[in-house]
Specification:
mainly alpha; 5 helices; 5 strands; single chain; three-stranded parallel β-sheet; two-stranded antiparallel sheet
């Protein structure tokens, strides 16, 4: 015994699963690039899974393609040193930044702390300029000025 709903415009997958009317089958294309035996097998199984679920696997992409999957490498590989720097800066930012914000909320006005902490990205612009030796774009500076002016309006 079960409940059967017949929604207008609903889609029933080949597995017999009734989906919402706004869910539709996808049109999927796979473009192999750097292929190893493992990647080839994973891609074949993935495409078979898409077909079993009622999606259309295309022989070539067209204007109606919803998803394009590929094994092509994206950009340059991440070096270990860069990954370590990224992880460490994120860890320090989260640990130190959140600790300081929570301490400020504990001892100060929460509204003021929230407004001031939302302006912290403005402080990063000069730091980015020093570290990367590239001047931030004019739009970034304009955004910083607007953020500071907005904060001044809220605090006044």
């Amino acid at each position: 015994m079960g409940i059967h709903l017949n929604l207008p415009g609903s889609f029933v997958s080949p597995a017999g699963v009734l989906l919402h009317p706004w869910v539709r089958p996808l049109r999927v294309y796979y473009s192999p690039a750097a292929v190893t035996l493992l990647l080839e097998r994973v891609a074949a199984e993935l495409m078979a899974a898409f077909q079993r679920l009622g999606h259309e696997v295309l022989p070539a992409p067209d204007d109606g393609t919803d998803v394009i999957l590929t094994t092509a490498p994206f950009g340059e590989p991440l070096r270990w040193r860069d990954a370590l720097y990224t992880f460490m800066s994120a860890a320090v930012a989260m640990a130190l930044g959140m600790t300081l914000i929570l301490q400020a909320m504990k001892h100060g006005d929460a509204g003021l702390v929230a407004v001031l902490s939302s302006v912290s990205p403005v402080l990063l612009l000069p730091l980015l300029w020093v570290v990367y030796r590239r001047r931030p774009a004019a739009g970034a500076w304009l955004g910083a000025v607007l953020a500071v002016l907005g904060t001044a309006l809220v605090l006044s």
